[in-house]
C-alpha cells in the first residue's frame, strides 16, 4: 500500500483510471482530474512557484518599544472568527482533496487545528458532485469538532452546472462549518482544461448567497482582490474576504509548470506569475473600500512576524497553505509544531511592539522603512 501511494504521488500511474486505496476504500477517479491534483502537490513541494524572493511584508516595520512593560506569557492573541473564538489570527488555508494524499493531508490538518484552536479550509471540492466516492478525502469533520472547517468551491462553477443545491450539497456532504468561494480566472485561463466563462457571476452569487447555510468567505488564489471587487462583494452581503495576493504560491505559475516540457520562455504561467496585486497592496485597497469588512491576509505569509505586520496593516486574520503542505503529509504533530512556531513568532512580534492584545496592536500601524516614532 505504501509503495502504491508513493508511485501514485510521483505520477507513475496508469493513464486511463487512477485506482487508489485509502483507509480500506477503493475509488476510481478519472486520470485527468486525479493527475491534476497530484501535479499540484508535486509542483508545490518541488518547484519554485513564488514570484518574489521576499515576503510582501518585508518592507514594513512594526513599532519598536525598548521597554514594553508587559509579560510575554500574558499576551492575548485570541480573536473572534464569525461565531467562534480562536486562539490566534491564523487560518490554515485550503490545499487539496479528491485523491489519496488529500485524505492524509486533510485529516492531519483537522486533528492539528482542533488541538491548536485554529480554523482551516479544504481544497476545491467540485469533484464531489460528479464523483461522490471522492468525498472521503474531504470528510474529516469528526477530527475537528471544536474548530470551524470550511468547504471550498470556485465561483466560476456557477456557470458550469452548479447552483444553490450543488453548493449546499458540498457543505452538507462533509458537515462543513463555512464555505470558501474562490476567484481564480487567471489560473483557469492558464490551465488547458480551464473553465473561463466568468460572465454574470456577481448576479449569480447574489442569487444564491441568501440560501447558503453557512458563513461565506470569498477568496482569490494568489493574485489579489482589488478595491472595486471588494466593494461590490461587500455590497452583495459578503462579510469576509481573503485577499490572497501576489507574493506566495502563484497558481498561474503552478498551472504553467504542469505543461509538458516546461520552460520559462513562452509559458503562460511564467509570463503571468506575478500579475495582480501584491498581498499588502490588496489588503490596503480592500480595507479602504470596506472599513468594516473582515479581511484575511494571505499570499507570502511565511512567519508569525509577517502575520502580525498584516494585522497591524489592517487584516483581521492571516493565512497560508504551502508551509503546511509538507507538514500535513508527514503527521499531525508536524502541523501542530508549525502552528506553534507561528504562535511564538506572533507573540514575540506583539511583545517587542508593546501590544498586549490585537486591539492594541491595530492601534500601532507599521511604517515602510524607518522606525515608528
Detail the topology: elements first, then pairings.
Elements (H helix, E strand, L loop, with lengths): L1 H8 L7 E6 L2 E6 H16 L13 E2 L17 E3 L2 E3 L3 E3 L7 H17 L3 E2 L5 H4 L18 E6 L9 H10 L4 E5 L2 H6 L10 H8 L7 E4 L7 H10 L3 E3 L8 H7 L10 H4 L7 H11 L4 E5 L5 H10 L3 E4 L1 H9 L1 H22 L4 H5 L4 E2 L5
Parallel strand pairs: 6-13, 7-8, 8-9, 9-10, 10-11, 11-12, 12-13
Antiparallel strand pairs: 1-2, 3-14, 4-5
Descriptive overview:
With 373 residues, the chain is of the alpha/beta class. The protein has 15 helices and 14 strands. The protein has helices at 2-9, 31-46, 100-116, 127-130, 164-173, 185-190, 201-208, 227-236, 251-257, 268-271, 279-289, 304-313, 322-330, 332-353, 358-362, and strands at residues 17-22, 25-30, 60-61, 79-81, 84-86, 90-92, 120-121, 149-154, 178-182, 216-219, 240-242, 294-298, 317-320, 367-368. It has an eight-stranded parallel beta sheet with strand order 6-13-12-11-10-9-8-7. A hairpin with a 2-residue loop joins strand 1 and strand 2 (25-30). Helix 3 (100-116) crosses helix 13 (322-330). The longest helix is centred in the C-terminal third of the chain and has 22 residues, at 332-353. It is globular. Mean pLDDT is 90; it is low at 1-26.
